[in-house]
């Protein structure tokens, strides 16, 4: 595989879990809920999927358990942040710290530094696209990925339709734009906020499964490595618009792939690993400056 193909392939691999978090997080953003627990929820999906699959010997059980665990975390976040009106930043930080602590505690009880699946090969679930796989340059890059990777890209289109072409999406945006207006229209604002949070939790579960179970068949603590926070940056740079947020996620993933590629070939490898985060901060700063126009963009009257 050539250098360019290698970089693009790594971008595709890195992008899938980030994109899933982005697509889930935009609904909370549009509902005017700051969900910074994306990182913790993705980590929970990764840990629970591997733990369940390891204990039961069933990969599908790992998928289901990951979704259930993340929906439970989403319900806790919604209960404390929306129903009980708690500080969502504190709640999100608590989830981000609690998940790796619980995972580390359980692995300590099991006396293992990581969780692996002995009788499962990630190659057994990859999808080889019939026509694409035979194309010389494109085939090795875009074919041979696990199911959730392809689902992530399909969901980018689905979420855009759900956001702008359905009654639910319009109501979520109205709630985020003006809660008083939403109440006057008879909308149950808390219900829409809770639904938005749960959508994000479900997407984070899939992101965790893709990262740990489908890609590596391995869980180590803190393996998400800030992907949830990168997703939050993409959401804010794209102002919650699915297409724009997706493009920012692609940019951050490409920066990470470039850093990974060159870090293996130069002596200053540790320094290069900082590059994706520098790019993220620079882009976020630039986007904030550009968006300082006093325009409210989270709700139904945002630019498409």
UniProtKB/TrEMBL annotation:
<dbReference type="GO" id="GO:0005886">
    <property type="term" value="C:plasma membrane"/>
</dbReference>
<protein>
    <submittedName>
        <fullName>ABC transporter permease</fullName>
    </submittedName>
</protein>
<feature type="transmembrane region" description="Helical">
    <location>
        <begin position="12"/>
        <end position="29"/>
    </location>
</feature>
<dbReference type="Pfam" id="PF02653">
    <property type="entry name" value="BPD_transp_2"/>
</dbReference>
<dbReference type="GO" id="GO:0022857">
    <property type="term" value="F:transmembrane transporter activity"/>
</dbReference>
<keyword id="KW-0812">Transmembrane</keyword>
<feature type="transmembrane region" description="Helical">
    <location>
        <begin position="147"/>
        <end position="164"/>
    </location>
</feature>
<dbReference type="InterPro" id="IPR001851">
    <property type="entry name" value="ABC_transp_permease"/>
</dbReference>
<feature type="transmembrane region" description="Helical">
    <location>
        <begin position="270"/>
        <end position="290"/>
    </location>
</feature>
<keyword id="KW-1133">Transmembrane helix</keyword>
<feature type="transmembrane region" description="Helical">
    <location>
        <begin position="194"/>
        <end position="213"/>
    </location>
</feature>
<feature type="transmembrane region" description="Helical">
    <location>
        <begin position="219"/>
        <end position="238"/>
    </location>
</feature>
<feature type="transmembrane region" description="Helical">
    <location>
        <begin position="61"/>
        <end position="81"/>
    </location>
</feature>
<keyword id="KW-1003">Cell membrane</keyword>
<keyword id="KW-0472">Membrane</keyword>
<feature type="transmembrane region" description="Helical">
    <location>
        <begin position="88"/>
        <end position="107"/>
    </location>
</feature>
<feature type="transmembrane region" description="Helical">
    <location>
        <begin position="245"/>
        <end position="264"/>
    </location>
</feature>
